[in-house]
Specification:
Oligomer: single chain
Strand content: 15-25%
Largest sheet: 3 strands, antiparallel
């Protein structure tokens, strides 16, 4: 019974911390959009990198969460994975581009 409580508390803590892009994580745009209202956070680094800000680029690009919690500086553009090629690898792993 106690082990179950520890596991539930761990998942609850992960859920609480998941409100913002986790520092040092690489995430697909679609992962961030599924988490919350990250559209402005995604579009700004795309613009800075001279990338398109269309739906394919916002959802299928990789972004680095640098921990600054700021729309203009909190998420960095890493690369565009091609439409539908950005792969969500789950809670404990960073996302990546599929081949």
């Amino acid at each position: 019974m106690k082990l179950t409580n520890i596991i539930l508390a761990t998942f609850a803590a992960i859920g609480v911390n998941a409100d913002w892009c986790q520092e040092r994580w690489v995430c697909c745009g679609h992962s961030l959009l599924n988490k919350g209202d990250y559209l402005a956070d995604i579009r700004y680094p795309l613009q800075v990198a001279n990338e398109a800000t269309d739906e394919d680029h916002t959802k299928s690009s990789l972004f680095y969460c640098n921990g600054k919690h700021n729309v203009k500086t909190g998420i960095d553009f890493v690369k565009y994975c091609d439409a539908g090629k950005c792969r969500n690898r789950g809670v404990l792993y960073g996302d990546n581009c599929s081949d």
